[in-house]
Amino acid sequence: MSSASPAVQQQVTLIELVDRVLNKGVTLTGDITLSVAGVDLLYVGLRLLLASVSTLERLDGERA
Amino acid sequence: MVHVYALVRSPTTVPATAGIGNAELRVVSVGNEIEAVVSDIEGAAQPSEPAILAHARVVEGLAEANDSVLPARFGNGIPDEADLRVRLEKRGSELAAAFARVSGCVELGVRVFRVPPAAELSGSGRDYMQRRLEEVGRAEQLARELDEALAPLARESTCRVLASGESLLAAAYLVARGEVERFRGAIDSFERAQPGLTLVTTGPWPPYSFALLEAEGA
């Protein structure tokens, strides 16, 4: 099993899904450039989440 | 306007799922024994989170019910069915090659993270560039090691080097349905052998990353 926490796993799955739907797949029209501020926000969210998970792990380690 | 979810080799088994905005799904024959799964939409679909999730759910349902599905990229909509046919009829051989490629396969995503992230880069521009180059170089080396471990178990693979903060790599693998468990085992072994790295596997996905046709470029 992956060592990632369920919260990280869930967030990565959402990013991977959005990335696939918007950036992969067969293109049918030329005009596929969609401006999606939300995708950037997802990445920012993941950074914060990873940072907080690593902080928690460190605190757990110090308590142990 | 018409929103396209995926292309399927005929005959298409349509899942009991609604499309974007709860619209009914429809099958449009586009020639070369290929069908497009579409729904009507007012104006161009906006890529809101509900619309993206609805698109993904339809593609997922199609991939579960049919052997080979080419997911369509979330687009700005096609004027009508006649326009869709014109666009696809001349691409028969490309589409046939893409269907053959993904037949019987699913896609697995692998993201590699370093937790905690590397220290923020500071110092002069020259120092920054030097350390940044080293960081990218290490991520590229890691990409080669990941490829050696996993690519032999996949039909095709792609890997992007991110080397940005905690995100090192974003890879995708086209894996035969029967090989998924073995593939996951190989990912776990790779992670155990790399202390300090976290691998997050996602999927199985419909083969989004391998549906792009050669002529379109990467």
Question: Could you describe the 3D structure shown?
Answer:
The complex is a heterodimer of chains A (64) and B (218). With 64 residues, chain A is mainly alpha-helical. Chain A has helices spanning 6-23, 37-63. Chain A is rod-shaped and about 55 Å long. The two termini of chain A are 23 Å apart. The longest helix of chain B is centred in the middle third of the chain and has 26 residues, at 125-150. Chain B has a 4-stranded antiparallel β-sheet, sandwiched between helices. A 4-stranded antiparallel β-sheet of chain B has the order 6-7-5-8, covered by helices on one side. The chains are: A mainly alpha (64), B alpha+beta (218). Chain A binds chain B through residues 1-4, 8-9, 12-13, 16-29, 31-32, 34, 36, 38, 47, 50-51, 53-54, 57-58, and chain B through 4, 6-7, 47-49, 52-53, 55-56, 59, 70-78, 84, 87-88, 95, 98, 109, 111, 113, 115-117, 165-166, 170, 187-188, 191, 198-203, 205, 208-209, 211-213, 216.
What's the gist of this structure?
The complex is a heterodimer of chains A (64) and B (218). With 64 residues, chain A is mostly helical.
- Distance between termini of chain B? 27 Å
pLDDT averaged over residues of chain A: 68
Note the beta-strand portion of chain B: 25-35%
User: What oligomeric arrangement do these chains adopt?
Assistant: heterodimer
Supply Rg of chain B: 20 Å
SS field, number of helical segments of chain A: 2
Order of helices and strands of chain A: HH
What is the first-to-last residue Cα distance of chain A?
23 Å
Most extensive contact: A-B, 34 and 50 residues
What class, by secondary structure content of chain A?
mainly alpha
Poorly predicted runs of 5 or more residues of chain B: 214-218
Global morphology of chain A: rod-shaped
Q: How would you write the strand order of the largest sheet of chain B?
A: 2-3-1-4
Radius of gyration of chain A: 16 Å
The major sheet of chain A is characterized as: none
